[in-house]
TrEMBL record:
Pfam families: GMC_oxred_C (PF05199), GMC_oxred_N (PF00732). It comes from Planococcus plakortidis. Keywords: FAD, Flavoprotein, Oxidoreductase. This is GMC family oxidoreductase. InterPro entries: FAD/NAD-bd_sf, GMC_OxRdtase_N, GMC_OxRtase_C.
């Protein structure tokens, strides 16, 4: 028998960036908010011994326990989907802050082209630029409409950067803090790309270049360039994360509380409204019902989609007919690039998650695609994130896999190797989607989420083109040996690639082709909101967090408006 708790104004499912932003904005307006987090509480104090590569980067201390809940995966519909038994291709965060704790900190705004990609592509190249099986669509919002929310997120996070990229959207304000240090290695990239006629700029970074107080009064420290960002929490409080910004802001209002070890298994509903959620205490396995006037799903991409599916809210996507939108347009990312082996030794130890330089000359529609068999592109960057010894062992081609020559090459090249990498955009395809698995269940008795995904011809063409550009840059940087990344064939879920999963709960202007409107309000349940990278109608050439943060502020505004006036917001 589930215990029914006191009703609140707003309940969020997950307490990462999106859950924290919703909580802070709503609590400041006087709404009573409960955050349900299935992981544990943590803070900067918990990371005083964080420089343990094996514990955090290899054994995944901060990540989801796949023995309790995982996904099943297959490349195509004619294959049997099998459970993902270990983390590999992407890393699912768990605990206070979610993936916003273990992220690198690159904080981009998606391009104006991204938000109107279908309209702009059709207008410039014709409606048949991509075959019909690519389910491309606009987002139902423009960059200009979203710009104030980008600005608000960047000021909350204190993002360090410079407005020197000629290809991104117009900004209403400068970055809150100046860019990070331009190291000698980044100067190599800057010189080479400038020589080739490109426009390099420092990456926008949530590893702050200087101490900063945000508009809510939260203090963020300056980065120490220790090189332990991705997969780690920050012991300095210098990598902006939810637990040092929006979560304390929400708590200070007195209108916010968090329940930890609270795994939501169902969104409850009556007619065309939701009434709250049912969750299970992960320690005692007691069941609770949390009634609420508004429910906001603020968990990770995969979990938001799964929760809607098991709660039977919305129409599931059918790849045979193309009908339905829940689970549709799953997209990942393509990772072209090249490595260079040099004669001189370099300091690759010091770094930070978002310390780097980039060019956008081959991102979005910054270059002509008329004679190319793909659209979009990639941001091309050189990052100096700190070469940790367990996971880093760059070797030139034809090096033996073991023995004396292997050891010699490992020692020689550890500090003599640099890479230029691209984050390639991923276009949606009718056969790449999420649904529920009919065989496997999680520890709570719910079906696992099933992921069907493979690289497409578009992906392979983009990867080849951008890899060639990366190799040219590396050659210009003076590498004695340049090795481009191998061509991609079938997607493999085992090796790590990025945690930039998108789609499944896509936004749009039409309830027939999207799950939520541009306030992230569910088309079928007006008091249900769903926010995260799952709202992306495709994946772009950047990290998603900056755009997720902007959407969260847009969603928070919608929740507040709905709480005041009710009804559909569009």
């Amino acid at each position: 028998m589930a215990t029914t708790l006191d009703k609140v104004d707003v309940v969020t499912v997950g307490v990462g960036w999106t859950g924290g932003i919703i909580a802070a904005e709503c609590a400041k307006e006087g709404l009573k908010v409960i955050g349900l987090e299935r992981g544990q509480e943590r803070s900067t104090a918990d990371y005083s011994m964080v420089h343990d590569e094996y514990r955090y980067a290899v054994r995944y201390e901060l990540m989801q326990d796949l023995s309790k809940e995982t996904i099943t995966f297959r490349n195509s519909r004619n294959q049997r989907a099998l459970p993902m038994r270990q983390l590999g291709s992407f890393l699912l965060g768990e605990g206070l802050g979610g993936a916003g704790t273990h992220w690198n900190g690159q904080t981009w705004r998606f391009l104006p082209y991204d938000f109107e990609i279908k309209s702009m592509t059709d207008e410039k190249y014709g409606a048949n630029k991509l075959p019909a099986e690519y389910t491309l669509q606009d987002w139902g919002i423009t960059y200009d409409e979203l710009e104030p929310y980008f600005d608000k997120f960047e000021k909350t996070a204190g993002i360090s950067g410079e407005d020197k990229n000629p290809f991104w959207g117009t900004r209403s304000a400068e970055y809150p803090t100046p860019p990070m240090k331009k190291t000698p290695l980044l100067s190599k990239f800057e010189t080479a790309t400038s020589n080739l006629g490109y426009t390099p700029f420092m990456l926008p970074s949530a590893n702050l270049s200087e101490a900063y107080e945000n508009p809510d009064g939260q203090q963020i420290s300056a980065c120490q360039y220790c090189g332990f960002c991705e997969r780690f929490g920050c012991e300095y409080g210098a990598k902006t994360s939810p637990e040092i910004t929006v979560v304390p802001t929400a708590r200070e209002t007195g209108n916010y509380d968090i329940r930890f070890n609270a795994n939501v298994v169902e969104v409850l509903k009556e007619g065309d409204r939701v009434t709250g959620v049912r969750y299970i205490d992960t320690v005692t396995f007691e069941e609770f019902i949390q009634p609420a006037e508004v429910v906001v799903l603020t968990s990770y991409v995969l979990n938001n989609a799964k929760l809607l599916m098991v709660s039977e809210i919305g129409q599931m996507y059918d790849p045979e007919t193309g009908r339905g939108s829940l689970g549709k347009n799953y997209a990942y990312q393509i990772l072209p690039g090249a490595s260079g082996f040099f004669d001189e030794q370099m300091n690759v130890f010091m770094g930070a998650g978002a310390l780097g330089m980039s060019i956008d000359d081959f991102n979005g529609d910054a270059f002509d695609h008329g004679d190319l068999d793909f659209i979009h592109g990639a941001s091309l960057s050189m990052t100096q994130t700190g070469s940790r010894p367990i996971a880093t062992n760059p070797l030139p081609p034809d090096t033996p896999a073991w023995g004396a020559e292997f050891k010699k090459a490992s020692i020689e090249n550890y500090t003599r190797t640099l890479s230029v990498g691209g984050q390639g955009a991923s276009m949606p395809h009718r056969d790449n989607y999420m649904t529920l698995d009919g065989t496997y269940k999680d520890i709570y008795g719910l079906p696992l989420l099933q992921l069907t995904y493979n690289f497409t011809d578009q992906d392979r063409a983009l990867h080849k083109y951008i890899t060639e550009k990366a190799a040219e840059i590396m050659q210009e940087m003076g590498a004695k040996t340049v090795v481009g990344r191998s061509p991609i064939s079938d997607y493999d879920i085992v090796p790590y690639q990025t945690t930039h999963n998108t789609g499944g709960t896509i936004m749009g202007a039409d309830p027939e082709t999207s799950v939520v409107n541009n306030y992230l309000q569910h088309w079928d349940m007006e008091n249900l909101f769903v926010v995260g990278a799952g709202n992306f109608a495709h994946n772009g050439g950047y990290n998603p967090t900056g755009t997720v943060g902007a959407l969260a502020y847009r969603c928070a505004e919608g929740v507040i408006k709905y709480s005041q006036d009710g009804g559909s917001l569009v």
